[in-house]
Every structure is written in structure tokens, then in C-alpha cells.
Amino acid sequence: MTHTVVDSPVGPLTLVAHRGALSGLYMTDQRHRPAQETFGPEDAAPFGEVEAQLAQYFAGERTSFDLEVDLIGTPFQRMVWQALCDIPYGETVSYGELAARLGRPTAARAVGLANGKNPISIVVPCHRVVGSTGDLTGYGGGLARKRHLLDFERGAHPALLPL
């Protein structure tokens, strides 16, 4: 494992690589963020493409990511995280809708728990999942960041967050 920290409009992002693939993208004070010492030594070398694609995303030039990722979690979590990647840029779905798409219509709560433990925020767009009424509910990076990312994707292009 290696890591690096990059600046972004939503604050510093800690990128973590496992076996050369992106395995973590964590925001400051993110819920379920592993302990810093588990990220391994700091080394920016494996993250050139990740940094380039994040820069393109935040410049409004990229709507999806094409990166090698290593999603470390249970089979159910990985299934949810993969489904997150199918939510179109600028759109949202509810936890219940996502559960139904997975063929588990009664598993909205389990989908929410898996969504909350997504280790690769932004790239695996867990911010695109909202409550059944469309309200913003829960986000490991905080609701202000979730609102910022959704507004950005909907074309509002908000300024830097005051973090």
C-alpha cells in the first residue's frame, strides 16, 4: 500500500493504492476512513492517472472515470459499489431504486450501509444516492460535500468549499 494527498475543490483527498490499483480515495474527516498508518508510505508515483482524471473531472471535462481500482469489501458491498458506477453523471437514484436495480428490492438499508462504506469516493460516485424523497441523506464526506458534488455535476459549478 502507498498513498498521496492531492488538493481538490472539496478539500484534500488521500489516494491509496493497493497492488498498483486505486483502493481508496478519502476526504478529510470522512466517516469510515481507515487509520492513516494503514495507507503505507507516501509515494505519488502510482497516482499520475488518478490525479489527471480527477483534475479533468473537477474542470468539468470528464463525467466518468477509467481507472484500475481494487475495491476491497464483501461481495455484496462490491456489487453495490459497481452499481454506483452505472448511475449517470449529474443524476441521482434513491437507495430503494438502487436496491431494486440489484434485484434486492427490500435491501435499501443494506444498500445504504454498503454505500456509506464505499472506499473510493467520487470515482465510485456514492454521492449520487439520495433518500426516497430526493433529500440528501448521509455522506461519508459530509452533506456539504455531497451537495457540492451534485450541484457541480448538475452544472452549477460551485466555488471551492470553505473547509
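^ that was protein a. below is b, sequence first then the C-alpha cells
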Amino acid sequence: MSYYLILILGCLSALSLSTANEVPTIAISCGNTKLETLPKYQQYMGTLEFKKMLLSLWDEDTKVVMVLENELSLEDFTMKGTDGHSLFQLFENSEDRRFFPSVDQPEKALEMLSKNDFAVKVYNADTYKNSSGKIIALADLNENIHDSNDDSRQTTLLKHNNEVSKIFTDLCTQYTNVVLVFSGKVNPWIEKSDASNAHHLVTRHLMAVDGKSEIFKIVDPKGKSLIYSVSYPTLSVDNGPDTPLEPSNTNTDVYLDDSRESLLKVGITFSVNGTKVILRFRFERITFSWELKSIEYERDSSIIQLSPKQPIGAQKGLSYFSAGPVIFSNDSIVLKFDGKFQVQPWLTSESPKFSDPQEQNSFFTPPILAGLFVTAIMLFIVTWGITMIMDIKTMDRFDDPKGKTITINVAE
């Protein structure tokens, strides 16, 4: 009975955590601060715990500034620019940093600090001048970056990275010890219900289902697969310039080959400088998962296999999503999707609609691996000890006290 009670309570706690307004948070510092005493990785942090963390970082010799985005999610940190680097290069290049993937309402923690003799002041060049006492500066990046246009979002994030970099550089120039905490107000995947103030998760069907931005979208005639990109792919031959592929006006039919159960080919015709080009996406199914093995590039009756730079696949019934860029290439040809890219073959729904994307982040974190290693050592020691105890044998013969005693004759 107690086992089922624990299971039910665990499910309820997990549900309450999943519906909270949690945002990723990262902290960087310069000088001699208490940031080094914080754990390098902590999956979840509540509002009260985050408030205590801010309290621990502050002292009379340390300037603490908090920068807030209107909307922030983990995808913003994993998104990369055309140069292959993170949009937040300040955090990518910072050696002394701490990352917290899930912090519950960090803005509320600031409000709680303001009731504990702290002055939360709007950040500017004179925030710390001619001031004393417990001060935490707040820089509010109040521009809404949640936009359906991928380019504007990336541009805004890059601009905000420059603003945060300027704040951090100016503070480190003026003061010896500085801690900058970057977080958000709202997770864009969580919104309030119209009927109540309770938060609920937004299903991540993503781009192609909303019908707002369908620049590059392929749905095969039988509705078995769905391929989407926020922009047309570009083609580079022999390290030449990137040439955008344009849809062919003469033949817009989608090619489909589903003659084999474990293989699915979906293709479409493009035009490059007046020349016909066909791209065929080759999907393979392996037991309970699928993978986009390659893209067949056909031009002038010659077919070339373009392989992805990173594995593209997911479990059956889930889609694959990447913030981009996604690159397919061989020795001389490079096909690149610069923006958001999402694919799913063997759709399970009747209408052409993406299922939830499979999580691409690594499951095994360093603390998990360390725990498994220590557990393996402990199991080995316990197993060895039990084996040694079981090998102990007791005597099976004893002297009879009523029998004749042993007599030993000693000759002189």
C-alpha cells in the first residue's frame, strides 16, 4: 500500500513541476566571487532556493546584476548562428559560469529580495555610484523576441547578447568582483489559461502545423511524411558561394516511393540557375526508430548521396527538430538548411501534423554517470563480501567425549 502511495505522490509532484513557469538561468562572474562555490549543474531550482542563491552571491565587495529576457527557453541556448556558434557568445566564451536549466519564477525571487532590505534598482551607468547598502541591479530586456520569423528572433538574440556583453564588460572594468545572472520572465512553451491563472504546457508541434510560415514544406501525396524548414536550402559546389534553391515552376509534384516497408523516399524538384535539381529524402525504419540516412541529389541524370553532418532520427511516432543549421554533404557538394528544420516519416495521425520532437539533449549528465560508477563499485564490494561469507565452511567432525581418548606414547 505504501508503495502505491509513494508512486501517486511522485506522479503528482512531477506534474506540478512540469506545469510551473520554469526558465533556464545562467550566471557568470569576473574577479573573486562566491560563484565558484555553487554546483556546476543543478537540474531544478525553486523560487526560494534561487533567492537564497542570490543572497549567497552578494557581499559588500561584489556587484550583482540580473538581466531578464521577456521569454527564454532552452532552445535559445542551443540555437546556433550561421557561423556555427551559440547566439549568446558571451556565455559560450565565459570560463567561470554556472547553468541552471530550470528555475521557477526568478523574477519573483527579486520581489522577495526587495522585502529583505535589498534595493532592486534599474541598471544604468550610475546604479552603484554614490550608493551604499544591499543593492541588486536589474536590466530588463523588454523587447518581445517570440516571433514566428526565425531571422528576426536570431537577430534580436544576437543584439541582446551584445547588450549583455556591454553591461558585463563595463561592470568588470569599473569594479573588481562582478556577478551577472541572465534569466527570463516566461517560458515560451508555457502559457496561462484563459479561464484561470494556472500555467499549462504548450504542445510542441512546432512550425508546420500553424500554417503561418510554410516557406519550405513537403507533404507526400499519401500523407505518410512531413518535411519542414523555415527557409529554402542553399547549395554550394566545390566550396563555391551558397546558391538558394528555388521551387520549380514546371513540376511541383512531390515524389514518393513507399514500395518497401522499411524505406521511404520523398522528393521535390527545384531549379538552380535554370537547371532542374531533384532532392529525395531517404528515410529508413529500424525496429522502433527511424532515421534520415541521406538526401539523394539528382542533377543532369547523375545521383549523388548527401549524408547529414549529425544523426537525424527519432523514435517511431516522434519527430526530429533542430534550430539549425542542418547540413548534408559529400566531398564536393554542401546542402544547408540555415533555419529551423523538422522532419517526421511514417506519420501516426490522419492529418499531416508533426508529433512532439524527441529530446536531443544528452540524458547522461556527469552527476548521473558518477552515481552509476559509485553504485557499481558498491555492488561489486557487496557481492564479493557475500561470496566470501558463503564460502566459509564449518567443521563436520568432532571428538566423542564418551569414546576412547587419543594416547600418544613417547619413547625415551
